[in-house]
Amino acid sequence: MSQPPLTKTDVDGFHKSLSNWGRWGERDQLGTLNLITAETRRAAATLVRSGRAVSCARSLPTEPAPDNPQPVVHLMLGTATEGWGGDYIALAPHGFATSHIDALCHIFHEGRLYNGYSIDRVTAHGALELGIHALRDGIVARGVLLDIPRVRGVHFLEPGDPIFPVDLEAAEALGSTRVGPGDVALVRTGRWLARSARGPRPAAEGLAGLDASCLPWLHERGVAALGCDGVSDVIPSRVPGVEMPIHTVAIVAIGLHLIDNLDLDALAAACVDEDRVDFQLTIAPLILDRGTASPVNPIALF
User: Which end of the chain has the least Cβ crowding within 10 Å, N or C?
Assistant: First the structure.
């Protein structure tokens, strides 16, 4: 099912109609993560029944590829020759390959960051507001898998396939659940199965993801964080003049942390085995003071 594309005027309007600026105070650093409370964490803990744990991350991508032009650098400082094992790792977390979470300082719009902070606060010494270190206590919440290929009866979505609110709601219905305030929504497109079948290709040639029309849905449901095996945005965006509307509006206006390049295939299989699509989800970013992102390995616990 498709629907007419939104316009740049529509998306520009979302920056006002969906704005959370000032909602949690003029010095807020967490955005919609404020919707995760002690009560929602306790409720998430009650979802642990079988004890099955599932990683939602890719291995750090050290091999260059069309979709990984800046591979992770992994060097050995210690081997059998030195008599001990030791590593050196260097990475650029943003992009289309490494599983990472964006800090709210990552995206700019009209000279502003989330909550109205000036983009001048992102400096050569790092981000002085909204850095990834604000997430030092981690994210512990109810996670909900929205498995769009399963809904559509396919193995994977094709590059450039848009996902609409009706797809998100169909995925909820499949799991007899509803995404609500404080939940982390994980949207599966089957990207890595598609890559295995078709080979790696530059992300600019197309990625399945959310259409801009999903933005009001994310705001209304009170999603605390949004993850995807792509980058949440459908590429191309379907909005002339706006390259990545999900990133721009979600991060800058809504204050929604995005988790990109996850691997949700094992999680999808576990959800089928466990006959449920919700679970306790734990995400622990690295504490990088003033950083704009962190690699992550989210763990789903059933």
Answer: N
Question: Backbone dihedral region of 200: left (phi > 0), alpha (psi from -120 to 50 degrees) or beta?
Answer: beta
User: Which residues, 6+ apart, have CB-to-CB distance to 37 below 8 Å?
Assistant: 182
Burial (Cβ within 10 Å: 0-12, 13-18, ≥19) of residue 135:
buried
Structural domain boundaries, residue 119: 8-59+96-301
Q: pLDDT by residue (tens digit) across 105-131?
A: 999 999 999 999 999 999 999 999 999
234, 161 contact by CB (below 8 A): yes
In terms of Cβ atoms closer than 10 Å to its own Cβ (0-12, 13-18, 19+), residue 80 is: exposed
In a domain, 137, yes or no: yes
Q: Are 172 and 180 in contact (CB under 8 A)?
A: no
Distance CA 226, CA 143 (A): 10
In whole angstroms, what separates CA 54 from the centre of its chain? 17
Q: Would residue 197 count as lying in a domain? A: yes
Domain count of the chain?
A: 1
CATH number at residue 256: 3.50.30.50
Residue 64 lies in a domain: no
* Cis peptide bond prior to 236, omega within 30° of 0: yes
Supply the DSSP symbol for 157: P
- H/E stretch holding 226 reads strand 225-228
State pLDDT tens for residues 144-178: 999 999 999 999 999 999 999 999 999 999 999 99
Name residue, tokens 């706006």: 242
Three-state secondary-structure class, residue 194: helix
CA 150 to chain centroid, in Å, comes to 19
